[in-house]
Amino acid sequence: MAGIGVTALRPRRVFAWRLALPDPLAVLGFLLLLALWQFAHYAIGTYFPPPLAVAKVAIANFAASRYFTGLGLPEGGYLPHLVSTTITVFVGVSVGAALGTATGLASALSRVARQIFSPIVSILGTVPILVAAPFFLIWFGLAESSKVILVAFYSAVVLHIYADRAVRNLNPRFGEYGATLGADPRLTFHAVVLPAVMPELFGGLRTALGAGWGLAAIAELLGALHGVGRVIIATWAVYDVAAMMAGILMLAIIAMAVDALVVLLRRWVTRWADIKGNA
Amino acid sequence: MSGLPIRIEHVSCSFTHASGTVVDALTDVSLDIAPGEFVCLLGRSGHGKSTLLRSLAGLNPLTSGRITVGGAAIEGPSAERGMVFQEDTVFPWMRVQENVEFGQRAQGQPPVKRALSARHWISAVGLDGFAHSWPKELSGGMRKRVAIATVFASGAPILLMDEPFGSLDYVTRMDLQNLLIDLWTRTRRTIVFVTHDIEEALVLAQRIVVLDRGRVVDDLPVRLAQPRDEEVRAQPEALAITKTVLRHLGLARPGRPAAAA
Amino acid sequence: MGAWLRNNWISITTVFVLALAWEIGGHLAPTSPLREAPIVPPWEYVFGPALIGMSDYWKIQLFAPVPELGGARTYFGALLAMGYHSALTLFRVSAGLALGALIGVGLGLVISVSEVTRRMVATPLHIIRMCPLLAMIPLFQFWLGATNWSAICYVAYGVGVVYFVGTLNAVANMPRHYIETAQTLGASQLLIYWRVILPAIMPELFSSVFLTLGLAWSAVIGAEYVGVESGIGRMIIWAEFFSHTGRMVLVTIFIMLYSTLSWVVMRSIAMRILAWMPKAHGQINPLS
């Protein structure tokens, strides 16, 4: 074996979990945004409350609020509504994503499945899912379940499209390589196909989450007993812009936190991928 | 390792494009490969070498003719015919160890046995210490070694290689050619190696099968001693083979005196 | 034609089965004397009484009788109502898309000029992206009223953010050597922007186009659901208020048709503009 050495160095274990320090320019940008906001308040007036006013409303009415009860909202301030919307999105996206991934994978791997799902998905993919909302209102009433079903439906469609596309775009060489090593279809599926499509599935998950918050909110705007949308409707009626903005921003903060978690999860699950996400 | 003779009998392979044009990739190819031989399929791009290899692997259907391995007709890919592709097919989501174990895992070998076997082959290809690395941390040449280790570890008696070193630089290619010859000499498995590089064929093969437009036009034995360094390759027998092959490929320079090659 | 039928018979059967299931559901679903329409309207109801009922939404004393003011329900009135509201909605979608694309891409190119501005914009942009678009309908309608213009601005905002981010990413991901080649040939900064960067980022931007199409539709329908008093989204809400499910189904079918049409139009525009783009090796056409 003389002469057949590997001239590359031994690999050093690099700790990939080192958190990046925030970019000073990004911080500056954030402060600039706040400044612009304040300036807009000076320019526009009471219809555009400054950041501090919005923060005050948020904090004052966060956990308990006689003001809210006065508007007809249930006890507990913003918190129970934030929780309600968050749970709606969590449950809806999880169930929908699981379902959509399953049907998407099936669609890519089986001709029959693809033929069954393709007309459904091509219609659902082009039509805004919002058209279903009024129907759900009539069929399921103002129940929480109609919100969840709306979000689940949308997530299922998104994940179906992502999963189907990911499997179809997979380099066929991987499957052939596995086959020439003796892998049967079952092993090929869970040892080759599934890990390979993970990066794309996470992309779909983030997309579904991104729109899920909005879908939950508008379902609540159309008529719900709980949720941030309900708060926005109630405070809109009394022209309390600060409260409306506070609700939206708090939802945005939760959405950001959840998205960051998903990114972290994706980085761990696909830690084998290079920077571009390709292999 | 029992030897499995390969018989390729009057194989033809045609493809029909979506536009309707029919391409005859292979026409009436017949070939016998004895167990333990190192055969190179040589020819221009698009003249059928890869098609023949893939048909042998069971990845392409045949239009006519049949291929038997050890007497039994082949019906698709199987672990008895392992393949190394030109593209990077090492699974990026598995560490090197898991990659090399994959063939044995597919065949149902118990974890301890396949781990030990994998370690042996990782060492044999010179990747000691990299068993727990991710493929993304390795260079292209090192990933090729992983693929080679994997296919040897799976126990395949027949190894098919489709221009495996084509995308590597010259020096890495030489390293890997030496590695392959070393492994072949020690294990005497059958290797069918596709290349368009005459030098590579001269370094590796016992036998060069030249394909031109889907037909076998020549079958040249290469009776040079291993290892075939530059000196061996400069010998008259080697030059004669080179010139014959060049002639088949249509690259022979007319009117050039034989002495000044 | 025969081959297409043979290959796709499962798909065709699926569609028929679903339509049939709907019809059966329509007859099995409970009706109540309080509602004019059954909860699940069967197809003959949708294309019969519901269709003519659409003329209820025609409110102008011109060309057709106005049911609101005691006139008769007519098919022509239904047609006019559909046409009028469809035109409004389609106008809002197109105008919003065009405005949003223009501002989003323009702003994106401007910010991309300097690395400093790009890094500064990152955090505020992320926060803005994370504000759920549909939750902001009341805010926009509070500020801009519930008019045509406010709907267009709302759509432009939603679409603009996507194009802004898309442009920033596309310019950042662009191969540097295109710009460098142009510079070595002596091109001015403006020429580089117009002739090199803009066309080069088109392929990546076009993946945003279909995303924004869906987004624009959602935004317009959403706005019409909540406050805007015209358009086909609003028609669904009017119908829903009285549980006129047949009319809801009818309008939904039209929305599906318009949606699909807009996708087809977008695709043909995209194909034409991107005719120069080479197909990536072995990759399925990203536009499909």
Task: Give a short synopsis of this structure.
By secondary structure, chain B is of the alpha/beta class.
Record the SSE blueprint.
The complex is a heterotrimer of chains A (279), B (261) and C (288).
Chain A: H1 24-44, H2 51-60, H3 66-70, H4 78-109, H5 111-126, H6 132-140, H7 144-169, H8 172-180, H9 185-223, H10 228-237, H11 241-269
Helix pairs in contact in A: 2-11, 4-5, 4-7, 4-9, 4-10, 6-7, 7-9, 8-9, 9-10, 9-11, 10-11
Chain B: E1 6-16, E2 22-33, E3 38-43, H1 49-57, E4 64-69, E5 72-73, E6 81-84, H2 96-106, H3 111-124, H4 140-153, E7 158-162, H5 170-187, E8 190-195, H6 198-204, E9 207-212, E10 215-221, H7 230-233, H8 236-248
Parallel strand pairs in B: 3-8, 3-9, 6-7, 7-8
Antiparallel strand pairs in B: 1-2, 1-4, 4-5, 9-10
Helix pairs in contact in B: 2-3, 2-4, 3-4, 4-5
Chain C: H1 2-7, H2 9-28, H3 43-53, H4 75-111, H5 115-130, H6 137-144, H7 148-173, H8 176-184, H9 189-226, H10 232-241, H11 245-273
Task: Please give a handful of descriptors for the protein shown.
heterotrimer; A: 279 residues; mainly alpha; MetI-like fold; 11 helices; globular; C: 288 residues; elongated
Mean pLDDT of chain A: 86
* Count of individual helical segments of chain C: 11
For the sheet with most strands of chain C, the description reads: none
N-to-C SSE series of chain A? HHHHHHHHHHH
Distance between the termini of chain A: 31 Å
Count of helical segments of chain A? Answer: 11
Provide the helix percentage of chain A: over 70%
What's the end-to-end separation of chain C, in Å? Answer: 22 Å
CATH topology of one domain in chain C: MetI-like fold
The name CATH uses for the topology of chain A is MetI-like fold
Helix content of chain C: over 70%
Write the CATH architecture name of chain A: Orthogonal Bundle
- Give the amount of beta strand of chain C, in percent: under 5%
Within CATH, the superfamily of chain A carries the name: MetI-like
CATH homology superfamily name of one domain in chain C: MetI-like
Structural class of chain C: mainly alpha
Characterise this structure.
The complex is a heterotrimer of chains A (279), B (261) and C (288). Chain A is mainly alpha-helical. In chain A, 74% of the residues lie in helices and 0% in strands. The two termini of chain A are 31 Å apart. The N terminus of chain A is likely disordered. Chain B has 261 residues and is of the alpha/beta class. Helices cover 34% and strands 25% of the residues of chain B. Chain B is built from 8 helices and 10 strands. In chain B, β4 and β5 form a beta hairpin. In chain B, α2 packs parallel to α4. The longest helix of chain B is centred in the C-terminal third of the chain and has 18 residues. The model of chain B has no long low-confidence stretch (mean pLDDT 90). By secondary structure, chain C is mostly helical. Chain C has a domain of 201 residues: MetI-like (MetI-like fold, Orthogonal Bundle), CATH 1.10.3720. Chain C contains 11 helices and no strands. The longest helix of chain C is centred in the last third of the chain and has 38 residues. Chain C starts with a helix and ends in a 15-residue tail after the last helix. At the A-C interface, α1, α5, α6, α7 and α9 of A face α2, α5, α6, α9 and α10 of C.
